[in-house]
C-alpha cells in the first residue's frame, strides 16, 4: 500500500511535521572496520540489500561534518542504503559512491570502503575492472540500446538516468516490457510520493537526493527534518517492495489455477 503524499515542492510539506526541538535518538558507535568483514560482503548481498530496501539515498554535502550528520539522520530514519560522496565509517550499512567516471575514482571509493559504485553512464574501464570483484558497479543508461549493452557487458543492475526527463514512471513501465530480466534503478527528479509507482512499474529501486536531503534543511542543518523525510521514504520503499512481491505471488497462484483448469492460453 502506498501512502499518498503531495509532491515535496514546498517546505515543510503538509504531510510531515518537522519538530526542531526534540533531539535525534543516539546512533550506536560504528563497529570497527575489519578486512574480514569486507571479504564476506559480496556483490550479491549488496544487490539484495538495494532491491529489498527500494530506496538509495543520494547525499551531496559541502563539508564532511555536514555529510556525517545528514547521513546519520537518514540512517536513524530507516534508510539502509546511502549513496554519498564521502563514505563514512558504518560498515553495517550499504554505502556507495556516485558519479564514478574513471578507474581512479573507483579505486579511491573502494579503498574508502564503498560497497557499490554508480555512474551517470557506462564507464567501460570501470566495468571491465570491477565486474569480476566483490564491489557492485551500477552503470547509467538512457536508451534501450544502452540499457541492453550495459547488461550484456556484465552489469547486474542498471541505473536509468535521467528518468524524469525521459518520462518518469511511464518510461520505466515501457522500458521494462522488453527487458523484464534486467534489474533497473530509476534516478533523477524522483519524489518520495512516487516511489511506489516506480517500483510497481518495474524499478527495483529508486535514487532519492533532494527528496530526502532537502536543500533548505541541509542549509539550516535541520537534521530532524531529514530524519522525518528519510523515515517516510524508507516506509514507502518497504511497502512498495512488499506490495510487488505479494502481486507476483498472487499472479503465479492465478496462473497455476488457470493451468489446472485447462484455461491457460499462450499469447
TrEMBL record:
Keywords: Carbohydrate metabolism, Lyase. SUPFAM superfamilies: Aldolase (SSF51569). GO terms for molecular function: lyase activity. It holds the Pfam family Aldolase. Pathway: Carbohydrate acid metabolism. Signal peptide: none annotated. Homotrimer. Belongs to the KHG/KDPG aldolase family. This is KHG/KDPG aldolase. The lineage of its organism: Eukaryota, Viridiplantae, Streptophyta, Embryophyta, Tracheophyta.
